Amino acid sequence: MPRLDDPIVTRRDFLQRMGLGVGALSLATLLGPELLVPSAYGAMESTNPLAPKTPPLPAKAKHVIQIFADGAPSHVDTFDPKPELTKWAGKELPGLRGMAFPSPFKFNKCGNSGLEISEVFPELSKHADEMAVIRSMYTDIPAHEVAQIFMNTGSLRLPRPSLGSWVTYGLGSENQNMPGFVVLRSGGSRPSITASCQSAFLPGVFQGTMVSTAKIRPDEILENIHNQFMGLADQRQQLDFVRKLNEVHAAKLQKDAQLEARLEAFEMAFKMQTEASDAFDIAKETAATRELYGSTAQGNQLLIARRLVERGVRFVQVWAGGWDHHADIEGNIPKRAGDIDGPVAALLTDLKQRGLLDSTLIIWGGEFGRTVTYDRNGNEKPGRDHNNKAFCTWMAGGGVKGGTAYGSTDEFGSKAVEDKVHVHDLHATILALLGFDHTKLTYRVNGRDFRLTDVSGHVVRDIIA
Fold first, then answer.
1. Strand 408-409 versus strand 416-418 pairing type
2. Other residues' Cβ atoms within 10 Å of the Cβ of residue 333
3. Which residues of 334-363 are buried (b: 16+ CB within 10 A; e: fewer)?
4. Quick check: pTM over 0.70?
5. Which residue ranges of the chain lie beneath pLDDT 50?
6. Which residues, 6 or more positions from 130, have their beta carbon under 8 angstroms from its beta carbon?
7. What does the pLDDT read at residue 339?
8. How far apart are CA 280 and CA 305, in angstroms?
9. Which of 16, 86, 383, 426 has CB 3.0 to 4.6 Å from 375, enough for a Cys bridge?
């Protein structure tokens, strides 16, 4: 018998639907309904995929702000002091190609913990007792685009969901009128930035919303957020009609992932009209708060990040680039560190004052580290080349054991040697802080359960409070 909303049904369609229906009922009886749909500890249990969800394990953090240091900061000039390099200055290092290049910066013991941090971070150093620095990070390939995609998705080859998409998939969002996952950038879009917010095979609703913060006014940051041609009621009717057409298309043919993602983007844009402009309007902050963050592009970004987290956004990624220093380490690192030092210290102070630091995980780090020898290009003002065997990442808030230095590199800082932490291990630890066993936060595609950490990853328990 034809459906009321589909009056044209051929005999072949009828028999096909009947056969599939009976088969599905039999399969459900044998397997149970929980095995018939993708599952992330029941992350899709609600009819609204962005509804807030309780993680299966005790969670330390509820939100994440990831500050991505695009360009690969030099670990031996920031958070991994290597005095041995000074003894070998200008000499060829044993087992390495090139002459030793000691850091031109002094490291200070900071806070009650005595955590050693470079002098280029005078404000951040005041928060040493809230930071856990991983000094034994390593990754697979020392090429910027590939390593950045790997750091953001856990994959070197296939298009995979980003870290933010996995987190939003598992936890949903606390604000249904805002995206659960926002990426803040100040420059143009590159493949690695695009990959950082992709949902890949996850439903499009978990894709990150990329926002350029090159401008300040909310209507410039969020261009065309308000529809100039029709009111909210008419927009709602239009979206409902388009969704209905898509349902008919999916029933007749098949679901199209790109189409689904586009419709979810339309839906979110509609919802954002009520709250997004307010969230991005830093002019509503007090003068004291604006002064705390500073009137710089980086300060504005981190202030917006706090405002987003405060409004229930689950995962905020801030791109803070400019760390690719093949030349003039002595001049360039203080400039770049100066751009982020005060704002990130302000973020930690602000979150703590508002009672949000304990529930917000802050992550800082790049895609790999730098060599401990002079850059092979022989610049007059020397810099450092790429090094995937050693780099640093630090975390704070969200259940992190502050005042901690975990793992170590060799005496020169050329490679991680003790308590080594791979990118998959870092991802596993982040998910653990959010209340997930990384081996069980999965999504089934083409007969296989995929996860952020692929088939690897170990939680770094020693940095969890």
1. antiparallel
2. 24
3. bebbebbbbbbbbbbbbbbeeebbbbbbbb
4. yes
5. 1-5, 7, 24-40, 42-46
6. 348, 352, 357, 396, 397, 400, 402, 403
7. 96
8. 9
9. 383
Report whether CATH 1.10.20 matches the domain 37-222+280-463: no
**Residue 374 pLDDT:** 95
CB-count exposure of residue 177 (10 Å: 0-12, 13-18, 19+): middle
pLDDT per residue over 85-123, tens digit each?
999 998 999 999 899 999 999 999 999 999 999 999 999
Question: Is-contact 414 371, C-beta < 8 A?
Answer: yes
Alpha-carbon distance 178 to 155, whole Å? 28
Instruction: Give the three-state DSSP class for 416.
Output: strand
Q: Which of 290, 329, 278 is nearest to 75 (CA)?
A: 329
Q: Which helix (H) or strand (E) holds 246?
A: helix 232-252
* Whole-angstrom Cα Rg for the chain: 24
Please check whether residue 167 is in contact with residue 182, taking contact to mean a CB–CB distance below 8 angstroms. no
pLDDT at 377: 80
The b-or-e profile of 445-455 (16+ CB within 10 A means b, else e) is eeeeebbbbee
- 188: which 2 tokens? 């143009």
Domain ranges of the chain: 37-222+280-463
Report which of 296, 339, 300, 274 is spatially closest to residue 124, judged by C-alpha positions: 339
For CA atoms 82, 86, 91, 94, give the dihedral sign: negative
CA-to-CA distance for 202 and 153, rounded, in angstroms?
12
DSSP secondary structure letters along 99-110: BB---SS-EEEE
In one letter, which amino acid is 12?
R
d(CA 435, CA 237): 39
- What pLDDT is attached to residue 49? 87
Query: In 183-231, which ranges are continuous DSSP H helix?
Result: 191-195, 218-221
